Amino acid sequence: MGDDEAEQAEFDRIEQALLRRWPETRLEPSLHRIRDLVELLGDPQQAYPVVHLAGTNGKGSTARLVESLLRAFGLRTGLLTSPHLADVRERIALDGEPISFEGFVAAYRDVEPYLDLVDARHLDTPLSYFEVLTAMGFAAFADAPVGVAVVETGMGGTWDATNVADGVVSVVTPVDLDHTDYLGPDVATIAAEKAGIIKPGGVAVLAQQAPEASLVLAQRAAQVGASLLREGLEFGVRHRDLAVGGQLLALQTPAGVYDEIFLPMHGQHQAHNAAVALAAVEAFFGGREQRIDPEVVRAGFAAATSPARLEVVRSGPTVLVDAAHNPHGARAVAAALAEEFAFSRLVGVLAVLADKDAVGMLEALEPVLDHVVVTRNSSPRCLPVEALARLAVDVLGDGRVSVAPDLPEAIDAAIALVDDPAHPGGVGVLVTGSVVTAGDARRLLAGS
After folding, report:
1. CATH class, range 3-302
2. How far is CA 250 from CA 236, 294, 369, 418, in A?
């Protein structure tokens, strides 16, 4: 066996070992297991400053924007995100690139000697897939070493495994209803869970929130003595214009106005994510009165990417992929499509996980879709096609709904529906409904 084959075999062994652990969908809210593990590792998450992000929607894009800005300022960066679209290595990035196969293997070998020991302490609730990957990310960042880590929570905040790190800047993106079985039945309760990432003496950067969420988050900041920066008060989007391939922004922060910022992402929601990211980076550098270099800010935003967020993966016809998985995200997608894409006909391809609000997503997308092809993705948790079809007919009507047994067939059917002489131009396909759906579609259409 050659070196490459041996490396791949070891990576496959590790991936299978991780997959045998408790999945991310099975939770026992506690920091006991992850604390035991990182203590045995020497608390690698304390080796560098952390920008910590939580929220219902936008935290992945905002995390990527924060990382891109920090990297533009010459810092070596670590980025810990979840879930992944195609390759588990995406979750642990160094300087904007997924960790190498060699680095991933080394990170697992760092934690592997301690896994059985921690599991033995918690026989009823062994370490989960997400907890082990979180520890691997922290270890990889310490080994690099990075100058700053940008860390996205997996779910919630207070008991999320990433919360063993103490963010010098804590970011909470918009809070809405999602994972209500674990996080709580209303926005205020969910906000209280996410507020747990706000740490004593740090800076809390809050995206625009529903009033009930804003109150809870502000109370947490006051309780722990964290400085507070709120979108719409201390910072925000001053102006935005549509531009080819994205948008041109002017952003206001406590230190002043940053204008002529090109953001290569679509949608007003991404402009707001950019404002949050800039406020967080400015706070990281300690500036409330002193602006950071506008030229570096422009370069950092221009280089930013956010895969599977209204990402064009094919042209002729245009096929977009978006990872929206709840009504709030679907509403943002619909607004961006209506504003920025002049489609004369748009067909959706939708596959949704069974525990998500499929009706809410369908209602949000209905105004911009001429037709929808319902299907399933590769997850065993996917809502059955027949059940999703019934919901889609209730929302859109029977004449606007088709069914396909799998995603490749659904995409082909959607393309055939827009490839119509009656609509010679300005037609498109939107593939959405889940991060899994988006990842599957990207592998099929973009080879990534």
Report:
1. alpha beta
2. 9, 11, 31, 37
Residue 381, SS3 per DSSP? coil
Q: Which fold has domain 311-445?
A: Protein-Tyrosine Phosphatase; Chain A (3.90.190)
Q: For every one of its 448 residues, what pLDDT tens digit does the chain have, with 9 covering 90 and above?
A: 566 778 788 999 999 999 999 888 777 889 999 999 999 999 999 999 999 999 988 999 999 999 999 999 999 999 999 999 989 999 999 999 999 999 999 999 999 999 999 999 998 899 999 999 999 999 999 999 999 999 999 988 999 999 999 999 999 999 987 655 556 668 899 999 999 999 999 999 999 999 999 999 999 999 999 999 999 999 999 999 999 999 999 999 999 999 999 999 999 999 999 999 999 999 999 866 678 999 999 999 999 998 999 999 998 899 999 999 999 999 999 999 999 998 999 999 999 999 899 999 999 999 999 999 999 999 999 999 999 999 999 999 999 999 999 999 999 999 999 987 666 568 999 999 999 999 999 999 876 5
Q: Taking Cα atoms as reference points, which of 402, 398, 396 lies closest to residue 416?
A: 402
Domain boundaries, the chain: 3-302, 311-445
Where in 116-263 does DSSP place strands (E)? Answer: 148-152, 169-172, 203-206, 227-230, 236-243, 246-253, 256-263
Name the pTM for this structure. Answer: 0.93
Confirm if 352 and 435 have CB atoms less than 8 A apart. no
Q: Which long-range contacts (CB under 8 A, 24 or more apart) does 397-404 make?
A: 400/369, 400/370, 400/371, 400/372, 401/371, 401/372, 401/373, 401/374, 402/371, 402/372, 402/373, 402/374, 403/373, 403/374, 403/375, 404/373, 404/374, 404/375
Query: What 8-state DSSP symbol labels residue 173?
Result: -
Cβ-contact 8, 101 below 8 angstroms: yes
CA distance 382 to 352: 6
Query: Helices 3-19 and 129-143, interaxial angle, to 10°?
Result: 130
- Is the CB of residue 163 less than 8 Å from the CB of residue 272? no
Residue type, 156: G
For the chain, first and last CA: distance in Å?
Answer: 27
Per DSSP, the three-state class of 34 is helix
The answer to whether the CB of 176 falls within 8 A of the CB of 202 is no
176 contacts 57 by C-beta, under 8 angstroms: yes
Q: How many Cβ atoms are within 10 Å of 339's Cβ, its own excluded?
A: 13
